[in-house]
């Protein structure tokens, strides 16, 4: 096979190239068509795994909850859910021609390019899908943070910055599959950027900073190595997923997966109504979010819960409240109440407990106990 | 294995080759066999079954990311004067099969990349200045040359491969008939999209998988694909019990973690037993499988078929060993082998000569890029080079090797120790484990009692497993100290070969009473133990001996102290070994990171 020339930084060229390769690739293939990346498995068709789905929905409604970590058994649909999420996110308005998906409404957070453009006479805007960027395994740092545009440097001798995956993910989601297999320095870098909302590049004589606000989603299997403890509480929400054990659920999982693999388009169509409903709910949830009140009583309960669990630091409390508010908004409730706090506490706090790695009592049990104490059984 | 057994194993393998070739993409085969004529014959058979144009690529064990996923093509880039991407092996194998050699030693990171391609049928890479997304619809053949249960391909990969075959004990004499002709396989391939699997087939496979103790939901899905392929190969349209039996035998049986209850598998029963899945089917009239025929419930048939395919000895072990029932224990076994694939942390690239390290192509080109117009203008020669790279552009990658430490716990579980304080030893180990957790060390567990030593846990990062095993560790019997040290030494060697630093932590009362030959002889036992300890005195092997004998017995000539001296390690006395002391001692013994 001859080397395949891939042009850099030209997204359009890449898309055309991808389509061409798709057509050519199909020739080599026999009678198997992989699920097209354009038609992922519908989010609503995922059987069970309510905690995981809810955590994603909360992050979609309020990106400031700060990332979701999904850890658990193989084959439970972790990656499937993240990829499906892309289709549920409300579209966003962004500046045409901006590599960082700048939000025209947020004038303070514009990138340098957009500031210049705005000064020269207005920004052209467009409505586009919120990005869900996959961090490919084996990605190198230069492609993640961005680097000198090699092609322009070689052919034209110009020094210019080629944005990386962090730029692409701005205002969207960045997904790391097998987060525990990622090189440590990349994880550190991602968490740092996710926390600060800004990507600072100082390399190859370039000095660039650009907005990089994204929801970090990590997934992994603890059997392949545990996540560094320092990393755990950098994620806002953490969900444990388990393979369902009851037979009817398992049958349903296999049946739906099989139906999807046999005919993805038809399957997607069958679920389009459900998908549409959920998309609407997320969109309204996001609109209403600002109007949801968090009464003092809820604040007090949240604080009590954190104290009872010894989940120190304000981050836990803040995440708990934000997640509860997002849930209230999703449910169409006007104020945060006990029900919402109870529901989100396990994944907002479970990973923040001062953990004895060898303690047999799972953090889930401890959270459940504390919830019962504070809210009553 | 008897001649008949070999013939049966080959027949199964050849059947599996045909079924895999009917529907290869996104699935795979794990083939356990030493290199040899039987394995070659099987691979040749598969080659013959696959369509003539389908690529079959071999990936060596040590394949680098740029060859596996793709990266920057240096030659083409220099020629063209702009970055040119190189297609990786995964994309090259699109529409065909990727063969992994020595898959049992495959690293977790590589396995994850291959698994991602299996799942999505495409690869995406963002490396070294190039990004691309390419089709990679592949099937995988993992050639597994491992000997025992701990040497298996990574669990993440095995989980995605439909067939797990074992030809380890099949000689070339058994290689005879083939299951089908290549033409039949090709016809089946064409027929496959038309094959229908009734709802009850899916239910039966899921129920059967549950009864065999198979946790992963991929197993019944893959079994379903096998059943469909089997149906297509029979030139039929609807999956029936025969296909399900084939799927059970080839795709489910090798994954079984518990022996299915024998129950009424031979007698066709009228009602479907007390198994929850079928009970539900009976109760639920909406399900269209309310006993369509007088045949036994399909999942009984399947379980019976699977049962027949599990070797008798394995079946016996599954039946008696209740611990394997816990899915994580078994599932994690191969997870342990994954931890090895960590390299040093790249420290970025520095200007340097080529002999100082690996050339970092992308950084070199970036360094050369700004000067191109200038150099072109001033070029004395007219070589027509698109990119002019000079020696001072060279950038080499530097790695800071944070070598991973593997703490090998060698635990005395003998009677003498158990009497005194196996419990306390366990407590001490837990303290140390917590410490390992913080430092992200791997741990391994060797226990000795009776007349032998056993590696309870190969190096793993799952400390929860270490703790679980430790809690279940029985005590009693003699003290084969030499055996324990020998086993630990062998393990330390293999850890070193993987590029990690072993740290040996011996917990014993030092009262060895079983010598190397297994005979009860206290004096000889101590000599042997000292000898074994001296052999551990090797560069790069740090050791620590923690004495658990009662205070009175632990004088200056305590046997444990002698052993510690013999292996040139530190000596620590239990009663003083509180958490902080232990942790400090380990840290002091461990080589600086």
Short description:
Chain A is α/β, with parallel strands linked by helices and 377 residues long.
State the fourth-level CATH superfamily of one domain in chain A.
P-loop containing nucleotide triphosphate hydrolases
Distance N to C terminus of chain B: 49 Å
| Overall spatial form of chain B | flat
CATH architecture of one domain in chain A: 3-Layer(aba) Sandwich
- Cα radius of gyration of chain B in angstroms: 29 Å
Can you identify the CATH class of one domain in chain A? Answer: Alpha Beta
Mean pLDDT value of chain B: 75
Number of DSSP-assigned strands of chain A: 11
Q: Hey, roughly how much beta strand do the residues of chain B contain?
A: 15-25%
Number of distinct beta strands of chain B: 18
In terms of DSSP E residues, the strand content of chain A is: 5-15%
> What overall geometry of chain A do the principal axes of the alpha carbons give?
globular
What structural class should be given to the helix and strand makeup of chain B? alpha/beta
CATH class of the largest domain in chain B, please? Alpha Beta
Might you state the CATH topology name of one domain in chain A?
Rossmann fold
- Tell me the count of domains of chain B: 4
**CATH A-level architecture of the largest domain in chain B:** 3-Layer(aba) Sandwich
Number of helices of chain B: 23
Structure report:
The complex is a heterodimer of chains A (377) and B (593). With 377 residues, chain A is an alpha/beta fold. Among the domains of chain A are: 34-91 and 129-247, P-loop containing nucleotide triphosphate hydrolases (Rossmann fold); 290-375, Helicase, Ruva Protein, domain 3 (Orthogonal Bundle), CATH 1.10.8. Chain A is built from 16 helices and 11 strands. In chain A, helix 10 packs across helix 11. The radius of gyration of chain A is 22 Å and the shape is globular. Helix content of chain B is 43%, strand content 17%. Chain B contains 23 helices and 18 strands. In chain B, strand 13 (405-412), helix 18 and strand 14 form a beta-alpha-beta unit. In chain B, helix 1 packs across helix 10. The relative contact order of chain B is 0.08. Mean pLDDT of chain B is 75; it is low at 263-295 and 318-345. Chains A and B meet through helix 1, helix 5, helix 6 and helix 10 of A and strand 4, helix 6, strand 6, strand 7 and helix 9 of B.
């Amino acid at each position: 096979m001859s080397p395949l020339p891939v042009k850099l930084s030209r997204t359009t060229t890449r898309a055309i190239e991808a389509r061409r390769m798709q057509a050519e690739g199909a020739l080599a293939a026999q009678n198997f068509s992989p699920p097209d990346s354009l038609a992922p498995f519908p989010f609503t068709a995922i059987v069970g795994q309510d905690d995981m789905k809810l955590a994603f929905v909360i992050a979609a409604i309020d990106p400031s909850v700060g990332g979701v970590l999904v850890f658990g058994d193989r084959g439970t649909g972790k990656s499937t859910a993240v990829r499906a999420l892309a289709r549920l996110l409300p579209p966003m308005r962004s500046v045409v021609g901006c590599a960082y998906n700048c939000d025209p409404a947020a004038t303070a957070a514009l990138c340098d390019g957009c500031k210049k453009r705005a000064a020269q006479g207005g920004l052209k805007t467009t409505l586009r899908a919120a990005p869900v960027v996959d961090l490919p395994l084996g990605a190198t740092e230069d492609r993640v943070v961005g680097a000198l545009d090699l092609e322009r440097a070689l052919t034209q001798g110009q020094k210019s910055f080629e944005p990386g995956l962090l730029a692409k993910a701005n205002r969207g989601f960045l997904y790391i599959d097998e987060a525990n297999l990622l090189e440590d320095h990349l994880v550190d870098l991602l968490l740092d950027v996710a926390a600060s909302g800004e990507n600072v590049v100082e390399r190859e004589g370039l000095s660039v900073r650009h907005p990089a606000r994204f929801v970090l989603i990590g997934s992994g299997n603890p059997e392949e190595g545990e996540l560094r403890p320092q990393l755990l509480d950098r994620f806002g929400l953490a969900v444990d997923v388990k393979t369902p054990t009851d037979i009817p659920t398992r049958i349903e999982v296999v049946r739906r997966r099989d139906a999807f693999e046999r005919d993805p388009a038809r399957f997607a169509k069958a679920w389009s109504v459900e998908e549409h409903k959920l998309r609407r709910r997320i969109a309204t949830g996001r609109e209403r979010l600002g109007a949801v009140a968090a009464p003092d009583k809820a604040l007090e309960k949240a604080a009590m819960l954190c104290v009872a669990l010894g989940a120190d630091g304000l981050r836990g409390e803040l995440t708990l409240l934000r997640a509860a508010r997002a849930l209230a908004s999703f449910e169409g409730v006007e104020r945060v109440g006990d029900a919402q706090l109870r529901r989100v506490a396990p994944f907002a706090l479970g990973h923040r407990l001062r953990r004895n790695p060898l303690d047999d009592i799972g953090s889930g049990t401890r959270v459940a106990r504390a919830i019962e104490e504070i809210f009553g059984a | 294995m008897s001649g008949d057994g070999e013939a049966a194993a080959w027949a199964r393998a050849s059947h599996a080759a045909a079924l895999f070739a009917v529907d290869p993409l996104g699935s795979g085969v794990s083939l356990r066999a030493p290199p040899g004529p039987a394995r070659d014959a099987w691979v040749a058979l598969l080659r013959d079954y696959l369509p003539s144009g389908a690529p079959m690529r071999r990936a060596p064990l040590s394949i680098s990311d740029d060859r596996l996923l793709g990266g920057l093509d240096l030659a083409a880039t220099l020629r063209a004067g702009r970055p040119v991407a190189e297609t990786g092996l995964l994309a090259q194998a699109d529409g065909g099969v990727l063969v992994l050699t020595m898959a049992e030693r495959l690293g977790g990171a590589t396995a994850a990349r291959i698994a991602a391609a299996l799942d999505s049928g495409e690869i995406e890479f963002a490396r070294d200045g190039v990004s691309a997304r390419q089709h990679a619809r592949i099937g995988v053949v993992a050639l597994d040359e491992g000997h025992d249960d701990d040497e298996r391909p990574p669990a993440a990969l095995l989980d995605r491969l439909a067939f797990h075959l074992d030809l380890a004990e099949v000689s070339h004499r058994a290689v005879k008939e083939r299951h089908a002709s290549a033409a039949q396989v090709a016809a089946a391939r064409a027929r496959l999209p038309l094959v229908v699997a009734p709802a009850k087939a899916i239910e039966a496979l899921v129920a059967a998988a549950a009864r065999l103790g198979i946790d992963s939901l991929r197993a019944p899905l893959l079994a379903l694909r096998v059943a469909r392929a089997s149906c297509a190969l029979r030139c039929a349209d609807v999956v029936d019990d025969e296909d399900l039996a084939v799927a059970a035998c080839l795709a489910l049986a090798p994954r079984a973690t518990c022996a299915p209850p024998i129950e009424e598998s031979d007698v066709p029963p009228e009602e479907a037993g007390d198994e929850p899945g079928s009970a539900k089917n009976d109760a639920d009239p909406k399900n269209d499988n309310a006993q369509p025929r007088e045949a036994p419930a399909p999942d009984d048939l399947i379980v019976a078929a699977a049962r027949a395919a599990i070797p008798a000895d394995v079946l016996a072990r599954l039946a008696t060993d209740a611990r394997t029932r816990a899915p994580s224990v078994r599932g994690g076994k191969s997870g342990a082998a994954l931890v090895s694939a960590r390299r040093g942390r790249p420290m970025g690239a520095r200007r340097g000569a080529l002999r100082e390290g690996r050339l970092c192509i992308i950084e070199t080109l970036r360094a050369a890029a700004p000067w191109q117009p200038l150099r072109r203008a001033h070029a004395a020669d007219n070589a027509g080079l698109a990119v002019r790279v000079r020696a001072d552009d060279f950038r080499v990658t530097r790695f800071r090797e944070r070598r991973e430490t593997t703490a090998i716990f060698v635990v005395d579980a003998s009677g003498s120790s158990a009497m005194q304080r196996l419990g306390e030893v366990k407590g001490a180990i837990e303290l140390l484990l917590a410490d390992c957790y913080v430092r992200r060390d791997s741990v391994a567990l060797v226990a000795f009692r009776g007349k032998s030593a056993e590696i309870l846990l190969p190096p793993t990062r799952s400390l929860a497993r270490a703790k679980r095993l430790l809690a279940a560790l029985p005590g009693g019997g003699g003290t084969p100290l030499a055996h324990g040290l020998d086993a630990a030494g062998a393990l330390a060697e293999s850890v070193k070969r993987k590029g990690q630093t072993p740290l040996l932590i011996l917990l014993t009362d030092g009262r060895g009473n079983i010598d190397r030959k297994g005979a009860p002889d206290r004096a000889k036992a101590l000599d042997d133990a000292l000898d074994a300890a001296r052999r551990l005195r090797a560069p790069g092997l740090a050791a620590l001996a923690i004495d658990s004998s009662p205070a009175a017995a632990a004088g200056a000539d305590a046997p444990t102290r002698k052993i510690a001296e013999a292996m040139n390690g530190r000596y620590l006395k239990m009663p003083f070994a509180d958490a902080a002391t232990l942790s400090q001692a380990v840290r002091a013994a461990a080589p600086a990171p």
